[in-house]
Write a structure and sequence with these properties.
This protein is mostly beta strands and 947 residues long. The protein has a domain at 2-68. Helix content is 6%, strand content 55%. It is built from seven helices and 53 strands. The strands form nine sheets. It has a 22-stranded antiparallel barrel. It has a five-stranded mixed beta sheet with strand order 1-6-7-4-5. A four-stranded antiparallel beta sheet has the order 16-17-20-21, with no helix packed on it. The longest helix is centred in the first third of the chain and has 15 residues, at 45-59. It is globular, with a radius of gyration of 30 Å.
Length: 947
């Protein structure tokens, strides 16, 4: 009887994927008095998923963390970004309230390499950062975070590698299985946002089947997400001007201004999965799979943008934080352009991800295995940034409207709380007789990214005392990235032009919007129906954006008015292509031996990586045909003869050794050590060659050359040591890690850069839209280089999982799972955006990250509450891509409850962001407010049906 019970339990645990945790104990002789204890070990639902994940970690040959689903479509998270944040040392950056980019061990998404079914993935971000919200959790069967590499893994992750896997239908325990998932969604902050949508839904369907005596497998999946995107936000802008406001002879730093907005819109994601697996003979497997994701986002921003006017503004009663002005009264002068812009922006982002692959796996002999893999990953992003500016007129009904230049703005920042604010024009912001549309602009970003990869792997089993097997392989990839910019502008954001007159609004175009809740003391404003306003302003149709040299560029040969008006040459100069070819080969030995009578397994190997990278380039040769100058025609027929087109780049080779060792101290305790040299390539967009020069309305010349095809990868040497204890109903893991960063990319900004001396064609003066000539003057020039002044990142990780199966029946399904990580770094970068340069930590580094989940399962009922905390960190400011700020600590709490109605039907209720945690950031010090963004809670109610 006892033997039968042990066998049944062993099979059950093995089926649940927890053999390494519980089977060893279950197979021991158990006295009759202990039978009841063995019987109540929980292996269903969430606990089963945790055990399977721990089991994978235990038997992995590298330092890793995993997430595993009970079945295809069973992960509860909205996207893989949410799911991955449950792992130790993993945190997320929230965009629009949703996790999108993940950080690993204190390093941002640019240091994270990502694969799908072992194949490199490209991104819609226009960088290398994978946007994990593009991947529906319903279509992913498991995910692993590899914190230490081995030679056979594709190089590219200093922080780590994220491996997503779709289902293998022939491994499914059922002959045929269907899963249908339907959930309704509600956001409780939508009522605060004009035209905000509050209701959304999730739907998914998946199927796995085996045919022809289990030699042919098929997996199909579809997942749809429709969700409202709402937020109310305050955004502070960088401190990029200086003026002596105290009269002490020393200039203080002034902010460009700030924004107060409602954001709303909708996000629609459709994901598709297909996988075919065929085993015609026992030693050969052919598998082909396809994954497609379409993520469309339509968003609007309404409210007002305050431009304080810079060094030319009249500043009264200044309030200082060190040398930065955080409050005072700003009055418009004839030169300052101090103003309030009422904004009604419309952003559309259409993203596509395609991943295709075919793999042949052949056991040539009992010892020799050959694997061939061919794949293609593509991504494209069509981001259309449409901006509509409105300004206050003295009288919008006048035959020739005049801008109201009597502008006075008073404000006082309040740290991580909303600021105090007052406007002398406040009543006019919602007055149709005062507000007029002054400018419309469209600024598309078109990115496309594709990688074709070919991989050959060999493994050979050995009959040797130490070497279990050897592996070797070669991989070749071709990556092609392109970025296209274009522009259309009409009117002015700072004046009423006679040549492009403002639009008189009518009642059917507008509605008055009041701020609510914490923002209720801010002035009301006019929300404008974009389509109605534009159709009235452009009755012949809105001209489409183009890539153009611009009439304000003096180098344009056939411009009717060279040097007059805006210069749009950046739309040509910031467009281009990047080419990256990589040839890698590796040799690795898998170890299996004993030391001092203790089992030791692992691997040692080296990976050789040769990279050839280049980019299209426009070199300013001053029109000299001997240096290759050509007449380059833009999309409207304007010709520039100053530049020589070409392709420039570099090539280099890395040798990446790695070692992974796992020493079994006892049957359930092991010590793991890993060491490796690793690289992370520069963001793909930063390998472009594009220097752009801008001349502002007041004549300031600025530029950037932050991209370069000569940038080299980040390099690091890293070490890992972990102590792991596994027991029948859980595990405890303690880990130490150390990364010695050898090289990273750093941005430098040179103030008052002499553009003419550097050879840039800068006119002595410009004539702006208002017809007044202004002398040009030197501003800032930004660039990037590889900085060899590295430093360490080191830390501690603790993880604990326990199911309290020893408790009485009602509580036997109670369990906890949590992790804590502590990370510190000596790498300090300098952020000048807050005025005084302030040291800041490595981007993405939170000193402390904590996750905790309490779950309970009993007779079909399941509930869990999860919390994710991360201490302050540095990241890109929400809504302003170029601004890097300090983010305040945050704690995000989620709740889920479910009831297994029968063998097929499970009912679910979820709340994401239970405490309505906002995002808060600041410029170096909390007194200098960056972003205050509130998203609301998301409620889900639905069901999962399996048959």
């Amino acid at each position: 009887m006892l033997k039968t019970r042990k066998t049944l339990l062993t099979l059950a645990l093995a089926a649940a994927g927890v053999s390494g945790l519980a089977v060893a104990d279950a197979e021991q002789d158990v006295p009759a008095s202990a039978e009841e204890q063995v019987e109540v070990i929980q292996v269903r639902g969430f606990a089963s998923s945790l055990f399977r994940s721990l089991d994978a970690k235990r038997f992995s040959d590298i330092v890793s963390e995993t997430i595993s689903a009970d079945d295809l479509g069973a992960l509860p998270d909205v996207s893989m970004a949410d799911a991955l944040t449950r792992l130790p040392g993993v945190s997320a950056v929230r965009t629009g309230g949703q996790a999108a980019e993940i950080n690993i061990r204190g390093m941002s998404g640019g240091f994270v390499f990502s694969t799908l079914n072992g194949r490199e993935q490209v991104s819609t971000s226009g960088k290398r950062n994978i946007e994990f919200d593009q991947y529906p959790s319903e279509l992913i069967n498991s995910a692993a975070v590899y914190k230490s590499p081995k030679a056979s893994l594709i190089e590219g992750g200093v922080a780590g590698t994220v491996e997503l896997e779709t289902a293998s239908p022939l491994r499914n325990t059922e002959q045929h299985s269907f899963t249908v998932n339907l959930r309704g969604m509600f956001n409780d902050r939508a009522t605060e946002v004009p035209d905000g949508q509050s209701v959304g839904h999730r739907f998914s369907f998946s199927y796995q089947g085996k045919y022809l005596d289990d030699t042919l497998g098929l997996a199909l999946g579809y997942a749809r997400l429709y969700q409202p995107s709402v937020a109310t936000q305050f955004i502070g802008l960088a401190y990029n001007a200086q003026k002596d406001v105290t009269g002490n002879g020393q200039p203080e730093f002034l902010s460009e201004g700030f924004e107060i907005q409602h954001r709303g819109g909708e996000e629609t994601r459709n994901g598709y999965l297909a996988s075919v697996e065929w085993v015609p003979v026992s030693n050969f497997t052919l598998k082909a799979d396809a994954f497609l994701s379409r993520f469309d986002k339509e968003a609007f921003a309404r409210g007002f943008r305050v431009k304080l006017g810079g060094a030319s503004a009249a500043v009264g009663n200044p309030v200082l934080n060190n040398s930065s002005v955080i409050g005072g009264t700003f009055n418009r002068t004839s030169q300052s352009f101090t103003r309030v812009e009422i904004v009604n922006d419309d952003n559309r982002d259409f993203n596509k991800v395609n991943s295709f692959g075919i793999n042949a796996d052949w056991d040539v002999t009992d010892r020799l295995n050959l694997s061939v893999d061919v794949s293609r990953s593509t991504a494209s992003s069509d981001f259309r940034n449409g901006l509509l500016w409105s300004l206050v007129a003295e009288d919008a009904n006048a035959e020739v409207p005049v801008l109201d230049t009597n502008v006075s703005i008073s404000y006082l920042l309040n740290g991580l709380n909303l600021p105090d604010m007052g406007f002398n024009q406040a009543a006019a912001f919602s007055d149709i007789d005062r507000v007029m549309v002054s400018k419309y602009g469209i600024y598309p970003y078109l990115n496309s990214d594709a990688v074709n990869a070919y991989k050959l792997d060999l493994s050979y089993e050995l009959d040797l005392p130490v070497l279990r097997s050897i592996e070797a392989g070669v991989r070749y990839s071709e990556r092609r990235y392109s970025n296209d910019r274009s522009v259309f502008e009409y009117g002015s954001d700072g004046a009423f032009l006679s040549s492009q007159p403002p639009l008189r609004l009518t009642q059917d175009m507008v509605s008055v919007v009041d701020f609510k809740g914490k923002f209720s003391y801010f002035p009301s404003y006019l929300a404008i129906d974009l389509d109605k306003a534009l159709n009235a302003w452009f009755p012949q149709g809105i001209p489409q954006p183009v890539q153009t040299w611009g009439t304000g560029n003096p180098d344009v040969i056939n411009s009717p008015t060279p040097g007059v008006g805006p210069n749009y040459s950046w739309s040509v100069q910031e467009s281009g292509q990047v080419f990256e070819d990589v040839l890698a080969a590796y040799l690795m030995a898998n170890l299996d031996t004993e030391i001092f009578g203790l089992p030791l397994r692992g691997n040692v190997g080296v990976r050789r990586v040769h990279t050839d990278q280049s980019a299209t380039d426009l070199a300013n040769v001053g029109g000299d045909p001997l240096q290759g100058a050509q007449f380059i025609v833009d999309e409207v027929g304007l010709i520039n003869g100053r530049y020589a087109p070409g392709i420039i780049g570099d090539s280099y080779t890395h040798y990446l050794p790695s070692l992974n060792l796992n020493l079994g101290l006892t049957e359930n305790t092991q010590l793991r050590f890993a060491a490796a040299k690793v690289i992370s390539r520069p963001p793909i967009n930063r390998l472009a060659s594009n220097t752009a020069i801008f001349i502002s309305d007041d004549g300031e010349v600025s530029g950037n050359s932050s991209n370069s095809p000569f940038l080299r990868p980040f390099e690091a040497t890293q070490y890992d040591l972990s102590y792991e204890v596994y027991f029948p109903a859980g595990a405890f893991v303690a880990a130490l890690f150390y990364k010695d960063i050898k090289s990273f990319i750093n941005d430098f900004t040179i103030q008052e850069f002499d553009f003419k001396a550097a050879g840039f064609p800068v006119p002595d003066q410009i004539i702006n839209e208002d017809g007044i000539p202004r002398a040009t003057f030197n501003g800032a020039f930004s660039t990037a280089v590889n900085n060899d002044d590295g430093g360490y990142i080191r830390g501690l990780e603790l993880a604990y999982t326990q199911v309290f199966n020893f408790l009485p029946d009602f509580w036997s399904g109670l369990g906890v799972s949590g992790s804590y990580s502590y990370t510190q770094s000596e790498v300090n970068l300098v952020n000048p955006l807050g005025g005084d340069p302030v040291p800041m930590s490595f981007e993405g580094l939170s000193r402390e990250v904590l996750t905790a989940t309490v779950f309970w399962e009993y007779e079909g009922f399941e509930a869990r509450i999860s919390g994710r905390y991360r201490s302050p960190f540095v990241s890109t400011q929400i809504g302003i891509d170029e601004q890097v700020t300090n983010f305040h600590s945050e704690t995000v709490v989620d709740f889920q409850a479910g009831y297994q109605w029968n063998d097929h039907l499970k009912l679910l209720f979820q709340v994401n962001n239970l405490t309505d945690e906002p995002t808060k950031s600041y410029f170096g010090q909390q007194a200098q407010t960056g972003t205050l963004q509130f998203f609301g809670r998301q409620y889900f109610l639905g069901a999962v049906y399996v048959f």
